[in-house]
Every structure is written in C-alpha cells, then in structure tokens.
C-alpha cells in the first residue's frame, strides 16, 4: 500500500501526464480565443506535446509560451492566408449555383468542397512544421 502513494509509481506518472494534457488543452483554448492566434497556438500545442508529454523534457507552460512566441509571426501569417482562402472558397460555394445553374453549380460546389478539405489537411500538417 505504501507504493501506491509514492510519486514515481505508474499510476501517479499516468495522472501527471493526464494533468499535463488537460493543462495543455486549456492553454491552447485560451491562446486561441483571439482567432488570429490559432495558428501560433496550434504550433505551440504540437511542440509542447512532443517535448514535454512525449519525451518528459521541460514544463508545460514555459515550453508552450516559448514555442508560441517563436512561431507567432510565421504561424499567424500562414493562418491569415488560410482564412482568406477559406473565405474565398466559401463565397465560391455560396455563389456557384446562382452563377452556373443547378447541375453545373452542384459539381463546382463539390470541387470547392474538395479544395477546402485539401487545405484543411494541409493546415493540419503545416502548423506542426
């Protein structure tokens, strides 16, 4: 029973990792509240999860803050470009049927939806990089 309350047993290490994951998720949500910073906070989330949670190096908040500051400019520029692309593609989806008619417009909407999916998959990859 003494082993159960020691900090280095498996249960306590697992609970510590779970706490780190929850804290990291809360940090990501808080830093993503201004929509412009979603890219930088996503990059910091990936960096911190790999460094702190996977490899047990450093602390959650300090690693997240350092990665957020280091990636802020590049990730924000990419995120703003991505938002502009989403807005343009969304407007094209909305205007496809009135401009092209029912049959061709539906086909064009499908192409634009595929492009949105493609950009979403690309953004999931590009923010960690």
Can you put this structure into words, describing what you see?
The chain has 4 helices and no strands. By secondary structure, it is mainly α. The protein is elongated and about 75 Å long. The model has no long low-confidence stretch (mean pLDDT 87). Helix 1 packs antiparallel against helix 2, helix 2 (38-54) packs across helix 3 and helix 3 packs antiparallel against helix 4 (102-126).
The class by helix and strand makeup works out as mainly alpha
What is the terminal-to-terminal distance?
45 Å
Shape: elongated
Mean pLDDT: 87
Percent strand:
under 5%
Major β-sheet annotation? none
Number of helices: 4
In sequence order, what are the helices and strands, one letter per element? Answer: HHHH
Helix content: over 70%
- Total number of strands: 0
Strand-helix topology:
Layout: H1 10-31, H2 38-54, H3 60-100, H4 102-126
Helix pairs in contact: 1-2, 2-3, 3-4
Short summary:
The protein has 129 residues and is mainly alpha-helical. Helices cover 81% and strands 0% of the residues.
Features:
129 residues, mainly alpha
């Amino acid at each position: 029973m003494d082993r159960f309350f020691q900090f280095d047993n498996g249960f306590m290490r697992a609970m510590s990792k779970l706490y780190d994951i929850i804290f990291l998720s809360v940090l990501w949500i808080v830093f993503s509240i201004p929509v412009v910073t979603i890219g930088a906070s996503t990059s910091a989330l990936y960096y911190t999860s790999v460094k702190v949670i996977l490899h047990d190096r450093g602390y959650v908040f300090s690693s997240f803050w350092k990665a957020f500051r280091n990636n802020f400019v590049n990730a924000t520029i990419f995120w703003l470009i991505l938002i502009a692309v989403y807005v343009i593609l969304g407007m094209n989806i909305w205007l496809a049927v009135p401009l092209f008619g029912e049959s061709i417009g539906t086909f064009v909407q499908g192409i634009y939806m595929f492009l949105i999916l493609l950009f979403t998959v690309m953004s999931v990859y590009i923010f960690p990089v």
